[in-house]
Automatic annotation (TrEMBL):
Keywords: Transferase. This is CoA transferase. The keyword Transferase applies. Residues 354-374 are annotated as: Disordered.
Amino acid sequence: MQSTQQPGTGALQGTRVLDLSRILGGPLCGQILGDHGADVLKVEPPNGDDTRAWGPPFKDGVASYYHGLNRNKRIQFLDLSSAEGQEKVLALMAQADVVIENFKIGTMEKWGIGFKQVQQRFPRLVWCRVSGFGEDGPLGAWPGYDAAIQAMTGLMSVNGEADGGPLRVGLPVVDMVTGMNAVIGVMMALHERQRSGLGQLVDAALYDSGISLLHPHAANWFMDGKQPQRSGNAHPNIAPYDVLQTGSIPVFFAVGNDRQFKLLCEHIGCPQLVQDTRFATAGQRSIHRDALKPLLEQALSAFEGDALATDLMKIGVPAAPVQAVDAALDHPHTLHRGLRVDLPGYQGVGSPIKLSRTPPTYRHVPLTPGEHFE
């Protein structure tokens, strides 16, 4: 496990981030920036971020959900609807390089502290707004929630078994991707500021991120006009790219080209499938996937899944056992890659972004108090 509390030495050391956001997309953006050295000061309303109550489990009355999104920040409480809170947050904006907020559009403007209202006063400030649908358009300024966006953008329509109904992805993928897109936008704006000396608005909307996740279904629809369908664990364009049953456990096979298919067939003792015209090329395998799957599973029934997946990966065939969350988090490679963080009173998932000279550091556990930028 990675346990580090060294002073900020990351790529963003010296960058000051004022995180006014709640729930997921904005806080994730702030945590990513904090992991890479930014000084992040999180301002919460007097009753705290809503996710403090999103449990169980809880620790000292605060839910695990909150703990997973708010490390490497120091927090203080302000009522931004009050004159005193507005005065204090304006003073913090004067020191900040980046502001992150995800209030309902119009809320900060009502308080007199919106982007356009402070832009001239703080011309270098990069302002990151995370919202449901953006400011304008047919759905502009509507509130947005991950599952609703999954439904609206078509993600649920292509997720689930072929003979089942639409299914929500089992994690808040839209919120998380929006948070990542927000980070990308912030970094672009900071980079451009070096040239112009000016900040700008970074507009990160859940709806936009949901639509952006539709590959390859959108690309398929643009080309042939056919309505994408649910395919369970199978890939709509590639076969075998699916969970197949072995003699013990299910294993996912991601066979993307003819060479990998040949290696797979030779390894499991059915080289004749390579010569079958139905399976000789990637395109034909995709067309004839319903015939191919039972033939492969018949051969796979003679193999123990874990060992088979390891052996196939060694020869260049992508395959992996279907693991539960605990097994994934305890896997030796998870530990080797520094994806477990262990600090006093805190455990979490480490940063997936690795920089050779300025790696991520973990300096503040969630709920660390703070009044000013360091």
